[in-house]
Amino acid sequence: MSSRLSVTVEHFALASEFRIARGSKTQASVIVATIERGGFRGRGECVPYGRYGETLEGVLAEIEALSGEIEAGLTREALQERLPAGAARNALDCAFWDLEAKTSGRSVASLVCETEPRPVETAYTISLDEPERMGAAARAAVRPILKIKMGTNDDIGRIRAVHEAAPRSRLILDANEGWTGDRLTAHLLEAARGGAMLIEQPLPVGGDEILARIPHPVPICADESVHTSADLEGLVGRYDYVNIKLDKSGGLTEALKMQRRARELGFGVMVGCMVSTSLSMAPAALLAQNADVVDLDGPLLLAEDREPGLVYAGSTLAPPSGDLWG
User: Fold this and answer.
1) How many angstroms separate the Cα of 152 from the Cα of each of 155, 189, 226, 229?
2) What are the binding positions for Mg(2+) in this chain (predicted)?
3) 39: domain range?
């Protein structure tokens, strides 16, 4: 039975400007791949990320180039070799998973989760800004876990402002490669004083050797430094956690493999996301069932999510329903 591929680009306005160390944006631009077969339809969403050399046009072309192969019977398993890890493979991989669930009558959760999926608690992101504004945003958020965007050469004031404004919140500090080695110890010590639970990617990729030689008063999580399971062994001794994102791993298939290997190597696991809709979050929400830290707040940052979407009760994320994905 042949399959048909269709691809669309969609734009979703953000509730407010989203700022990190590398720049800012006011909308989420996503690509949705849809594979149809025998009256059933599977969908997957991805976010091309410029940090990894991806563009909307380039990822769209990557996906569309496989239209003939998908029509001829390309499988999810074969896709892993056909495309490299990244946004394009993620959209197609998740579309295949969704289609398999629809055609088999078995949910993806029943195939990949050890137990019945449960609600999980997600972090909520505070964008990079001046300390007093970040403190005000943290106070207004009233969330149990706050992910605080950092990444300047002096974030001491930001850490203090957020901790003082939200003393009961657990804090994840995300530097997005923005700290420097000469200021690292000062930032780590302030993070510890501020009660941070995790620090994400403090140093640039390729410049993180120092992490193996200094104490970690707060656990350190690799993000930009880790994409697939092949990267994990090289991070042993430098990082304590790894952040698994489907747009980096190239889909749920590799992410599941990556999660298992991370556990074997002794890493804690964080499941994260790009700023995107519930269609991106749904497969990640299943991966999050076996995670230590969950950061799947993408839809909470949008002015309006797609319908139907995931159900959030504050910071608690319910498992996806079949009418959305899987």
Assistant:
1) 6, 16, 22, 30
2) 174, 200, 223
3) 4-105
